[in-house]
Design a protein that fits this description.
Structural class: alpha/beta
Strand order of the largest sheet: 3-2-1-4-5-6
Shape: elongated
Distance between the termini: 60 Å
Mean pLDDT: 95
Number of strands: 14
Low-confidence stretches: none
CATH superfamily of the largest domain: NAD(P)-binding Rossmann-like Domain
Helix content: 40-55%
Radius of gyration: 24 Å
Number of domains: 3
Largest sheet: 6 strands, parallel
Strand content: 5-15%
CATH architecture of the largest domain: 3-Layer(aba) Sandwich
CATH topology of the largest domain: Rossmann fold
Number of helices: 18
Length: 439
Amino acid sequence: MKIVIVGTGYVGLVTGTCLAEVGIDVVCVDVDKKKIDNLKNGILPIYEPGLDKLVHRNYDKGRLQFSTNLGEAIKDAEAAFIAVGTPPGEDGSADLQYVLAVAREIGENMNSYGVIITKSTVPVGTAAKVKKEIQDALDRRGLSLDYDVASNPEFLKEGAAVNDFMKPDRIVVGVESDRAKKVMEKLYHPFTLNGHPVIFMDVPSAEMTKYAANSMLATKISFMNDIANLCEIMGADVNMVRKGIGSDPRIGNKFIYPGIGYGGSCFPKDVKALAKTARENGHVMRILEAVEAVNDDQKSVLFNKVMKRFKGDLKGKHFAVWGLSFKPNTDDMREAPSVVIIDKLLEQGATVSAYDPVAMEEAHRDLGDRITYAKDEYEAVKGADALLVVTEWSEFRVPDFEEIKADLKAPIVFDGRNIFEIQRMAELGFEYYCIGVKS
């Protein structure tokens, strides 16, 4: 089976590589020649644990190829995945220009039946627009050709994407014909052998499922952060509250950890896009709009604690920041709370030294030379007035607290991810501020 993946970003590269791993012939296409040349030389554009080994193995075996020529790649392909970016516009809506441009190019070059699959996260109704672009291109060629458009949203967690793809909770596929369904069944047959369910539905429902799933998870996060803020006011401990509600199987213990807001490429964009789609259709998603507002405010909570502790005067103060990526095990800086926090510290006249295990290069694109980048977590704290824990990387969980105390001007820690124990920090002599517990 031959398939084409258009886009070698996070979704496209993971999808193409994992499908090649189960024996499918995959051509990953991208307009960025430098990116394609790098991939041919084993240099990946993203950090994702375990992905590099799979790319190298399948490229060496010839099952995974990289190209800038979509016209050549699409010939005789049974299926083509559109996995290009859908960045949010100024009004929050998903920008479909890249998706539709790919659809147009596919229509200009396809020469046999195939299933065109939207893998990018797209609003309900996008498949119809993709179909129109393809059909218009075929009409301009004077060519009558059968094809189908399908939706196959991804549910990958950054930092665990390879495992998520190879051992999925579910595979959601929206199709509009039995012929398309048979192609998708063939494509995902290696996964159904291991008992992973493929859920077939109509195309609009598949498009909506992706947005609904991410919006529900974002809602859990914002709800718990709102509860955490109330806990601080009322003198309750959000860590105890989390355990109390998480034991209820109707709620569960995932995505209810308090913190400093969600970021990344999915939740912020998808919440905005779904809320915008609703408004365009005369419906207000009141819960989702509140979710977004809570999250925006939550990214300033740690900074506000710093301001309160230092009585509103940060001029001349120096702060250490542990963690820059929006979550561990990724170098993704999109919508990262660290950027909001650091910007606010700098605006108040403070200086910052930061360390992240993998996101330093990406962070430099956002923050430039306005901060210092430390070689490790201990270099970051030297001479700092306080330490801010922003991303919960595993290597930060059991640090050398004595070295931290010796390097800080004063033993002050602001923990935005609640990775340390309050009692333990007090015993060690730290002034400790976390989320959802009254200081």
